[in-house]
Amino acid sequence: MRSKIYKGVINHRRSDSIQHGFRYPLFMVYLDLDDIDGFFNRSLLWSKERFNWASYYRTDYLNPNIPDLKQAVAHEIMQKTGRVFQGSVFMLTHLRYLGINFNPATFYFCFEGDRLRYVVTEVTNTPWQERHTYVLGCEADDNVHNFTTRKQFHVSPFLAMDMEYRWKIETPGDHLRLYISNFQNNQRVFSAGLKLTKVEASAKNMNLMLLQYPAVTLKTIGGIYWQALRLWLKGARFNNHPKPSEDQAL
């Protein structure tokens, strides 16, 4: 089985006039989209398309009108790049835990053979529950990939739209590190990072993750609102959600 679990820490840091940061532990699944059934058959606490402690539902992810998620990823690559993709796709994500679903970002690592070709990032904002994707093309065989994109989607009301994203993403292996920085007028104003270590996806380890992190998605939702309150109390500027005509993603 090529699916894995990754555990580690996520950190956020704001570095403009408002100094603010936090970090907390988490785990994420790294799911081979060609073997979804095999992964969820390993433990009675993990299920596909039904309630459980950990559950996968197709409707929680990219373009649910396309029944097969891997085909939906390939379709997104075609829409954004005009290129046909027929390789393997691995999804780094949160599932539903105790029925609660929320994914600030899901990453689809798209390989042709052993070479990483694309990273498709699906971003979801809260409380609006809108989705937007960034398709990042890996042009070199390097283990570390750097990308620059314009911000196209409203995520945090405490960060303006007129920003540039700078991404640094490692090809997943024994470790997985992923960094995103927001730049405005060539100055870094915010950064976020994942530092993760591979864990074998055995039934024992899968169940151990649930005991160590019993409600990951609930903690994520609560953490977003708690950190937003802290930023507001520090006097961070509040940016309203742009109207559809102002937001390229809507």
Structure, briefly:
The protein is an alpha+beta fold and 250 residues long.
Topology:
Blueprint: E1 4-15, E2 19-32, H1 36-40, E3 46-48, E4 54-56, H2 69-81, E5 88-93, E6 96-97, E7 105-112, E8 115-124, E9 131-137, E10 144-150, E11 164-170, E12 175-184, E13 187-200, H3 203-212, H4 216-233
Parallel strand pairs: 3-4
Antiparallel strand pairs: 1-2, 1-13, 2-5, 4-6, 5-7, 7-8, 8-9, 10-11, 11-12, 12-13
Largest sheet: 10 strands, antiparallel
Distance between the termini: 38 Å
What spatial form do the alpha-carbon principal axes imply?
globular
- The helix/strand class is alpha+beta
Rg, rounded, reads 18 Å
**Percent of sequence in beta strands:** 35-45%
Number of strands: 13
As for the number of domains, it is 1
Residue windows where pLDDT falls under 50 for at least 5 positions: 245-250
Adjacency order of strands in the biggest sheet? 9-8-7-5-2-1-13-12-11-10
Pfam families: DUF1365
Protein name: Chromosome partitioning protein ParA
InterPro entries: DUF1365
Organism: Ketobacter alkanivorans
Describe it for me?
- With 250 residues, this protein is α+β, with helices and mostly antiparallel strands.
- Helices cover 18% and strands 41% of the residues.
- It has a ten-stranded antiparallel sheet with strand order 9-8-7-5-2-1-13-12-11-10. Strands 3-4-6 form a three-stranded mixed sheet.
